[in-house]
Amino acid sequence: METLFVVAVGLFIATNIDILLVVVAFCLDEDYATVEVLLGYCGGYLVGIGGAVFGAFVVTGVLQRWTFLLGCIPIGMGLWGLFRREPDPEGDELQVTPGSRGRVWVVTVTAIALNGENLAVYIPFFVGLTPEQLLAVVVVYTIGASVLFLVAVLVTRLTRDLPHPAWIDRWLVPTVLIFVGSYVIVSGWIAV
Predict the structure, then answer these.
(1) pLDDT for residue 94 is more than 50
(2) How confident is the model over 33-73, as pLDDT tens digits?
(3) C-alpha dihedral over 58, 63, 68, 70, to 10 degrees?
(4) pTM summary value
(5) Is residue 178 within 8 Å of residue 78, measured between CB atoms?
(6) What are the φ and ψ backbone dihedral angles of 93, each rounded to 5 degrees?
(7) Quick one: DSSP state of residue 87?
(8) Cα(184)–Cα(180) distance, integer angstroms
(9) How far is it, in rounded angstroms, from Cα 24 to Cα 144?
(10) I need a surface site. Which of 92, 105, 116, 172 has the fewest CB within 10 A?
């Protein structure tokens, strides 16, 4: 059981670095209240973890031998992130800030989108677990999600006046996605 928790925590950390960075960015944005970011983040997390559990049940009965191919999703996202060209900014663009519900919705949708690559990692991992192990991992991930939010708030408070380094979005996040996707493919391929 200890090995299971070490693997589970490792996967959680590897797949949530990008989410941590995005939550920090939302917390740094003066248009978003911390409670709005919290509500949106929680909504996105619940959809993501629920989708992973549901996906594991579906895959267990139908496609268990091929779940490792889901690792192609984060690899593709990581390669896209590394090789895409950012458009050059052209002056000040008009930005519309939504109301409170709209801001919560923006954070929720962003968190759901970021949890997309987590599905490619969590589903193959969840497939091999017993119901008791799955419940334990979901509890650990929920605790981890809470800690992640608290760390994001702490980082925000400590770094509010520092510039956001571009290399995090440009290189770190895509590299982590490629690493995680490769891990899913290799570990699944070895198991088959």
Answers:
(1) no
(2) 999 999 999 999 999 999 999 888 887 666 556 656 666 76
(3) -60
(4) 0.68
(5) yes
(6) -95, 140
(7) P
(8) 6
(9) 16
(10) 92
